[in-house]
């Protein structure tokens, strides 16, 4: 028996598990939130160190190691954010991340404020998705109404009746032809039938 069979080195790499796209969106967005939280903590520490250096006039940063603050969102808030992330369509995942990064860069929030900004970006994206779905629904309804109305108008246009052009002989027409038309008053134009 060879030693290679005991280890997984000789096995071909297994295929990645087929995951639900919603799960991937939730995981991606939550990873982005975690990364932005760490960046906000880092910037907050840098601001505190700079303030301390300005206040004391001396830099003892090399001597004192500041305790690592590790802000973490509560489990309830994390579940709410994951639920909101699950409502985001996979095609909107990238734009949501870009918008979140833009908002974080614009406001430079404290670590505690990052989750609130993330929530607002998710709400904004959910509203936009909802509006686009309603617009598509209205467009579909409009297209189906137009198809039926166009078919009716083409049917109506084929069977158009003009009251002034008629090949049907009537009694009143024969009577009118036998008599001379009366002369009209000069203020009114004269209409004559030219057949």
TrEMBL record:
InterPro entries, per the entry: RD3 (IPR028092)
One Pfam family here: RD3
A single GO BP: retina development in camera-type eye
Domain of life: Eukaryota
Descriptive protein name: RD3 protein
Native organism: Sitta europaea
